Amino acid sequence: MEAVLYVSHGSRVAAARLEAARFVEQCKAAVDIPIQELCFIELAEPDIITGVDRCVAQGATRIIVIPLLLLSAGHAKRDIPAALELAKQRHPAVEIVCGSPFGVHDAMIDIIIDRISECAPSLDGESMILLIGRGSSDPDTKRDITAIARRLQEKTHVPHVSVCFLAAIGPTLDEGLEQANASPCRRVFVVPYLLFTGVLMKTIERKLRGFPTSDKQWHLCPYLGYHPRLVTLIRQQVASLALAKKGA
C-alpha cells in the first residue's frame, strides 16, 4: 500500500506549523493515496522517522516523501536523506522514494507575481523587485534564486530585479535595501521568498520600518505562503513517483 509523507521545514512559531498542516490537508484532498502524513525536519513534531513509523503502522509498504521546501540546499541534500536512511534501517521491507523541493519552476514565478499583485500600485516601468531569500552556504541556493529573479524579470518586464539573503551569503538584507534605495526606480516591491511566517518575516518587517525614508515608494509583499499552485506541483510530483513504480 502506498503512502505520502509530507516533510515541512518546521518552526517554533505555532502559526507557521498551522499553515503547514492546513496546506497538507489541501494536498490530501487532491492526492488519491490512502495514507498521508505530515512531519517536520526540525523545531516541531513529529520528526521524519516518526512520520515514516506512522505510515508503516497504517500498512504502508511504499512511501513517497514530498519535501515542502522552496529550494534544494542542506535540508534537502543532507538532513532529509539522513533521516530516511535511518527510517529504512527500521523498516527494511518498506520502499521509500523521495521527491524534490519546488526549485526553479514557472509556477513559482507565477506565485511571486500573484503576491506582488496583492500590493498597490501595479508594477510598471518605474518599478523594481527586491527578492529576499532565506540564504544558505550551499552554492545552489544563490544560483537558483538568481535564476528565479531572471525569469521574474523576463515575465514582468520590470527594469530591474535584484536579490539579497537573510543569512549565510550575500548580498545581505541591509545591502539589498541600500542597493534598491540607490536605484533610479521610484517603486520598490520587496518580496520575501519564504514559504511560511515566522522570525525571518518579522526581521524583514522590522528592517523596513527602520529603514531611512526616501522619495521612493516601498511595498512589502506577502510571503509566498502555501499557495494553491503548490498543490498542483505536489499532485504532479506524487503522480510521477507513483508512475515510476508502475513502470519499474
UniProtKB/TrEMBL annotation:
Query: Example GO molecular function term?
Result: sirohydrochlorin ferrochelatase activity
UniProt keyword annotations, A-Z: Lyase, Metal-binding
Q: What is its EC number?
A: 4.99.1.4
The record's InterPro entries line, in alphabetical order, gives: CbiX-like, Sirohydro_Cobaltochel/CbiX
> Is Chaperone among the key words of this record?
no
Q: What is this protein called?
A: Sirohydrochlorin ferrochelatase
What organism does this protein naturally occur in? Geobacillus icigianus
